[in-house]
Amino acid sequence: MNYVRPDNRQFDELRPWNIQVGVLDYAEGSALVESGKTKVICAATIEDRVPSFLKDQNRGWVTAEYSMLPRSTLTRSPRERGGKIGGRTMEIQRLIGRSLRCVTDLDALGECTITVDCDVIQADGGTRVASITGAWVALHEALKRLAQEGRLDGDPMLDSVAAISVGIVQGTELLDLNYDEDSSAEVDMNIVMTGRGKLVEVQATAEGDPFSLTAMNRLIRLGQRGINAVRDLQKKAVQS
């Protein structure tokens, strides 16, 4: 435990997190998530249509798109144009969509599609976990709008979902990695978990030597503690 974090946090300490709702006037649901220097705007849009594979089934759909603004990083990144998106972007937006659908009753939603756009305006590690966490808040606000308009027979929101990053840097297990830690980590892991403590997804990679199942379980427990704290912020945001 001799490793000293760049921002002097404890190994199990989150960066400063903040979640604001209603940050956009026109979206049916919106949230700004700040995790340290990482900032993501999430906007939910309701459309009275469904994908062709759900037509006439009286079921809804929840999906997501993800992007990073060109100057969200230290150097400018080109925009992904013309419908051509990179593999990383595709992976992340699919992850966000899966995470939201895991806690949504699509039958109770009715025939509509909710798309949550997650745009990273500043990146310092953990953009995908911040996006998932904020996307759920934006989705919650959009469903609240549908309920207020009398368009829902029941509550499609089955549970909450949030995410956090963990990893091993210089042999030390850490919670909520920033970019400097993530870029030098021996193990990098992203954990997505519901409010009831069920896992949606665990993405774990060893950058050098393999790591043990025991270490993996410790990291998941560490991540669960962080997710519990982030979930409290979600609850406060949607109740404000």
TrEMBL record:
One annotated GO molecular function: tRNA nucleotidyltransferase activity
EC number: 2.7.7.56
Keyword Nucleotidyltransferase: yes
GO terms classed as biological process: rRNA 3'-end processing; rRNA catabolic process; tRNA processing
Binding residues for phosphate: 88, 126-128
Keywords annotated in UniProt: Nucleotidyltransferase, RNA-binding, rRNA processing, Transferase, tRNA processing, tRNA-binding
Keyword Transferase set for record: yes
Catalytic activity annotation: tRNA(n+1) + phosphate = tRNA(n) + a ribonucleoside 5'-diphosphate
PROSITE patterns with a match to the protein in the record: RIBONUCLEASE_PH (PS01277)
Pfam families assigned: RNase_PH, RNase_PH_C
Enzyme class name: transferase
Gene3D superfamilies reported for this sequence: GHMP Kinase, N-terminal domain
Residue stretches making up the Exoribonuclease phosphorolytic domain: 13-142, 160-225
InterPro entries referenced in this protein's UniProt entry, alphabetically: ExoRNase_PH_dom1 (IPR001247), ExoRNase_PH_dom2 (IPR015847), ExoRNase_PH_dom2_sf (IPR036345), PNPase/RNase_PH_dom_sf (IPR027408), Ribosomal_Su5_D2-typ_SF (IPR020568), RNase_PH (IPR050080), RNase_PH_bac-type (IPR002381), RNase_PH_CS (IPR018336)
Family stated for the protein in its record: Belongs to the RNase PH family.
HAMAP family per record: RNase_PH
Description of how the protein assembles with itself and partners: Homohexameric ring arranged as a trimer of dimers.
Function summary: Phosphorolytic 3'-5' exoribonuclease that plays an important role in tRNA 3'-end maturation. Removes nucleotide residues following the 3'-CCA terminus of tRNAs; can also add nucleotides to the ends of RNA molecules by using nucleoside diphosphates as substrates, but this may not be physiologically important. Probably plays a role in initiation of 16S rRNA degradation (leading to ribosome degradation) during starvation.
Protein name (Swiss-Prot/TrEMBL): Ribonuclease PH
Originating species: Desulfomonile tiedjei (strain ATCC 49306 / DSM 6799 / DCB-1)
Gene (name only): rph
